[in-house]
Specification:
The protein is mainly α. The chain has helices at residues 34-46, 51-61, 65-74, 77-85, 89-94, 96-99, 107-115, 122-129, 142-152, 154-161, 167-181, 184-200, 206-219, 228-233, 236-242, 249-252; strands spanning 2-3, 6-7.
Length: 267
């Protein structure tokens, strides 16, 4: 994931998520901060590579969405097992030896093909998420564990949905994530960037692609509760059918050269 076109950063030699000391959560409920979110969104539009603004928005607008998602996990057998085991996906996805086991055509192989050319790492994204001053994403709390899970699977959702890491692809993945997570931060980013593409008048269905991604997220199976260790070993085409993820037909109609041409960005 990258901030609009670059939310998934690389991290070479940085401190890994495994070394984080988890402290108790200081708050029982996060207050929604719309002014803070809008200020961060303006910064994101001005510089689509400013990953910190993405996490500022998500932090400001998370509200009760992590509680809703965690409760939903607990209500399903597979999700309940994942919540019980509390696997830290960033540690798993940072393990290159573990990732190397996946055969061609699997979700895991496609994930490696997605992250490797761009130097993306799971720990890089985790490091950026900790730059928000009052974040509790690394807290020793079920709600924080669920938030980390959503953070860590973002690039896997890129692979499953077929959206690339350009600005339009990021907006589409974020739009897909909105009905999956009920996080208003995803709604602000997706809707705001769709408007910027409309203002750019590219002549291609950029904004409609974002809307289609939101619809696809509504129709698809609920991804946060998936067993990602098993999912990565599954053939990609089979996983998409099982999870009811449609092809991104409108996004595919937009030439790659146009997918970063939203109004307001600096390149």
């Amino acid at each position: 994931m990258q901030a609009i076109s670059a939310i998934s950063p690389s991290l070479e030699g940085g401190s890994g998520a495994a070394s984080v000391s988890r402290q108790p959560s200081a708050a029982t409920l996060r207050r929604v901060q719309p002014v803070r979110a809008l200020r961060a969104f303006r910064g994101l539009v001005a510089d689509k590579d400013d990953t910190r603004q993405v996490f500022e928005i998500m932090n400001a607008l998370s509200g009760r969405s992590p509680d809703w998602g965690y409760r939903r996990m607990m209500d399903t057998p597979a999700g309940g097992k994942q919540a019980y085991e509390r696997l830290e996906l960033s540690d798993l996805l940072q393990d290159r030896q573990w990732l190397a086991q996946f055969k061609p055509g699997t979700v895991g192989a496609a994930y490696c093909a997605f992250i490797d050319p761009q130097n993306f790492t799971a720990y890089g994204l985790a490091e950026d998420s900790r730059k928000v001053a009052d974040t509790e994403i690394e807290a020793a709390h079920p709600r924080a564990w669920y938030a980390r899970r959503l953070r860590d699977v973002h690039d896997i959702w890129h692979v499953l949905t077929g959206y690339h890491s350009d600005a339009l692809g990021e907006a589409c993945v974020v739009a897909f994530s909105l009905p999956q997570t009920r996080s208003a931060g995803f709604g602000l980013i997706a809707g705001g960037i769709a408007v910027q593409f409309m203002r750019a008048r590219t002549g291609y269905p950029c904004a409609r692609a974002v809307l289609q991604a939101w619809r696809n997220g509504r129709w698809a199976a609920w991804l946060p509760g998936e067993d990602y260790e098993k999912l990565l070993a599954e053939p990609l085409d089979q996983a998409r059918r099982r999870l009811k993820i449609p092809a991104p037909t409108l996004y595919d109609q937009v030439p790659p050269s146009v997918r970063n041409a939203y109004q307001g960005g600096k390149g």
